[in-house]
Amino acid sequence: MLDIILPKLNGIEFCKRLRSAGNQTPVLLLTAQNSSDKKVIGLDAGADDYVVKPFEITELLARIRVLLRRTNSLLLPVLQWRELSLNSSIHEVVYQEKILNLTPKEYRLLELFLRSSDLVLTKEMILDRLWDIEEAPSENAIAVHIKDLRRKLKQAGASTDFIETVYGIGYRLKAFNTDTAAEKREKKEPQTEQLLRQQIKQKLNTVWEKFEDVNSDRLTILEQANHAWLADSLESQLLEQAQWAAHKLAGGLGVFGFAQGSRYALEMEELLKIESKTDRGREFSELLAALKNSLKSDLEPQLNPVNQNRPVILAVDNHPQLVKQLVAEMSALDMSFQLVKKPISLKKALARTSLNAIIWDFSLANFTAKTIDEFAQILAESLPLPTILFTDSEEEAAKLKNITSLRLKIARLNHHILLQRASLDMQATKSIVKALQQFQQKVAKILVVDDDPQILATIKNLLNPLNIDLTVLDKSLDLWQIIPELKPDLLILDVAMPDLNGIELCQLLRNDCRWQELPILFLTIHNDLTTVQEILRAGGNDCISKTQTSSQLVPKIFNHLNRGQLLTSLVS
Amino acid sequence: MTRKILIIDDDDDIREATQLCLEIVGNWEIVTANSGKTGLVVAISQQPALILLDVMMPDMDGLETLKQLQVNAVTKDIPVMFLTAKAHPAEQRQFTQLKVSGVITKPYDPFELSNRIAKVLA
Fold first, then answer.
1. Total domains in the fold of chain B
2. pLDDT on residue A152
3. Is pLDDT of A308 > 50?
4. What is the 3-class SS of A173-216, one letter each residue?
5. Within the 502-561 window of chain A, which residues sit less than 8 Å (CB to CB) from chain B?
6. Which of A297, A326, A385, A477 sits a CA distance of 20 to 30 A from B9?
């Protein structure tokens, strides 16, 4: 909180210097100067909010809460791209263990690229974000800064096109791989593959329900054959029909996820083909009963493989006392949790659906890169999980060999990880436990507005298994009625809609103080720069291409939800 | 460019399931036919990049359909993969003697199915 009129260095000047040094701490100007001009000057200097004295203390507190919430949703302490990591809490940039010595402007430029890794940044956008209007340099100056930054990245071992030029448009971070489409198909990221599998299972479920009658007819034929067989009156026509039915079930059940049922049907088909059928009727009956049973027992787990419960992972490095205290607190509160030390126990813990939290007690000092890789592999196979990491103090860590590469591996585990040095006192464990509990109970509310029923159905299919309270609207004008009652945690808008389009809706929402912090994601078929810029200008947080909804939607939702929620609860 | 794949299978449920797996995982354009006969017509009119052919079908089975595809100048070069619930080595051998690009056993894994198709198309 900063007053404006101060001796020697005034608040505005102080704020400007803070920002130009790359410091992003939220600043709230608190002053008796009430004119609109002064407010504009203050906000342009980099302040985040402006409160005029005299003020209501409750309003001041509310505004502070907003700023803290926004900080937590906007700032991730460690930003990562390939081998490069930027730790904004200590202003350090490391490429493959080499520290880069950057000027404040270069640092902020790199930070801007890392935060907009899926965008092409035009020179205009860069100017707009990094320079004040009065001090804005020419566009050539940006080219010079980029050149210097590339040179320093190259010195650290990065390729010269780490920041690549998009001719005629601007610059962007070079994408990870440029494989052909076929190669990409083979190398689908484990997490993407898992999401796709989940999507396939969902849709197969619908197909299965649609053709339930066909399969139940096949079972009826097998039952008829069974009766006839037991009565020694299995005629060739029924036999042929039964063989056909068993054959179809063997193929079909397997496709729909009833692996065991498919095996039974295959055995039945074999049995029906045997020439001498005497005394084999009983065997057939048993297989039929087993097949029917397997369909019952497989139905729930196979077709609804949902992860209703997503435990929070609390990774604690080299801090036995903190772990002990957390365990004691959780036990006292009857919280379900598991303490893991080895990758195998993490795997087992993730398979349990009743856990509130997993405490991963580890020590970087005793870990090898291989052990971390094993953990990473297991986490990559799960849905994105909120993870908090408490690491050792910097001084202790510095004594360890390879600490940077180990840390990088940890930071890459998944993008929800938050690094925090364990400077917490033991009193804090109570509030950590409480935050975990609240996080677990919280069901995120998501509102989707799109006039295309097909898109709405796809989103429902994708989000249904994820314990999300989903509301969909197909008319943009209905939003005003719904949103105040629903108070969603995240809003998804279509860009092109009749009446009011998504961008207009977003502008209107951002003008209402209640919805200024609401994460708003856009669904768009137009991924061109102009649309993206329009969305960002209107206050949108992210864009999802409609053609990539299935792969992008869930990770982006989790990303925006998780950033805010867990940290907010910890902070409060 | 999206490549077209033709699925010929008399089972509506399997056909639909296979279609959605390939659409989701492989992002291919799918055309379907519910019999060998329709399959031939679709293959001629649509010129798919690959045909997935069920073996056991009434009237014209997969083997007969394959024969017909191979004598038609328009369809003879389209790679064909068999879809079958039969897993016996003897039958597998019989299939390999035919000019097919692969045999996929039901139940299949959607990703493996897509990968095998991608390899044939590569």
1. 1
2. 92
3. no
4. ECCCCCCCHHHHHHCCCHHHHHHHHHHHHHHHHHHHHHCHHHHH
5. 550
6. A297
Range of the domain at B58: 4-88+100-111
DSSP code at position A246: H
Cα pseudo-dihedral A314, A317, A318, A323, rounded to 10 = -10
Give a yes or no: residue B16 inside a domain.
Answer: yes
d(CA A44, CA A46): 5
Q: What Å distances lie between residue A498 and A78, A474, A505, A511, B21, CA to CA?
A: 41, 10, 11, 21, 33
Residue A80 corresponds to which tokens in the numbers above? 């990562």
Q: What is the pLDDT of residues A226-239, one digit of tens each?
A: 988 888 888 889 99
Let me know if B15 is exposed, middle or buried by CB neighbors in 10 A (0-12, 13-18, 19+): buried
Higher per-residue confidence, A17 vs A437: A17
Indicate the helix (H) or strand (E) that contains A168: none
What percentage of chain A carries pLDDT values higher than 70? 77
Whole-Å CA distances, A52 to A3, A42, A63, A68, B20: 10, 12, 12, 19, 59
Look up the CATH number of the domain holding residue B46: 3.40.50.2300
Half-sphere exposure of A85 (CA within 13 A, CB side): 20
Q: Which of B10, B32, B106, B120 to mutate to test the interface with A (most CBs of A within 10 A)?
A: B106
Task: Enter the DSSP assignment of A2.
Answer: B
Q: Among residues of chain A, what percentage have pLDDT more than 90?
A: 6
- Residue in chain B closest to A254 (alpha carbons) equals B107
Least confident of A179-183, A208-212, A213-217, A529-533: A179-183
Considering the domain boundaries, does residue B93 fall inside one? no
Q: Would you call B19 an interface residue with chain A, using a CB distance cutoff of 8 Å?
A: no
How far off is chain B from A547, nearest CA to CA, in Å? 10
Q: Which residue has the higher pLDDT, A455 or B32?
A: B32
Question: String of b and e for A324-339 (b: at least 16 CB within 10 Å)?
Answer: ebbbebbeeeebebbb
Contact status of A186 with chain B (Cβ, < 8 Å)? yes
Tell me, letter by letter, the H, E, C secondary structure of A339-382: EECCHHHHHHHHHCCCCCEEEEEECHHHCCHHHHHHHHHHHHCC
Q: Which two tokens stand for residue A344?
A: 């195998």
Give the Cα separation of A571 and A567 in Å (integer). 6
Residue B67 lies in a domain: yes
Q: Are A31 and A41 spatial neighbours (Cβ–Cβ below 8 Å)? A: no
Domain membership flag for residue B13: yes
